[in-house]
Amino acid sequence: MKSDSKATDRTSLEALTEAYLSKGGTITQCAPGPSENVTYKHSMRGRPRAKPDTTEKTQNSTGSAPAADA
To answer: Which residues of 6-36 are buried (b: 16+ CB within 10 A; e: fewer)?
Structure first.
């Protein structure tokens, strides 16, 4: 609802509300405050973590430093 004034927004909202109610819709007013019956679904947001690079660990798995050529 992009318009220039609040008055046109208000009349548009009232017209939409009247159309909704005339089609059999109902408006439910809830009590203020948090609801006790809220069900949250776990959802991951963002990118997953990158897997650690294991190529270096597998090459030096003996735990000793590489021998120097002297």
So the answer is: eeeeeeeeeeeeeeeeeeeeeeeeeeeeeee
> What pLDDT, in 10s, does the model give residues 1-32?
454 789 999 999 999 999 999 999 999 988 88
* Residue bearing tokens 């090459």: 59
How far is the first Cα of the chain from the last one, in angstroms, to the nearest whole number?
Answer: 78
d(CA 30, CA 38): 14
- 35-68 per-position pLDDT tens digit: 788 777 777 777 878 888 877 655 555 555 666 6
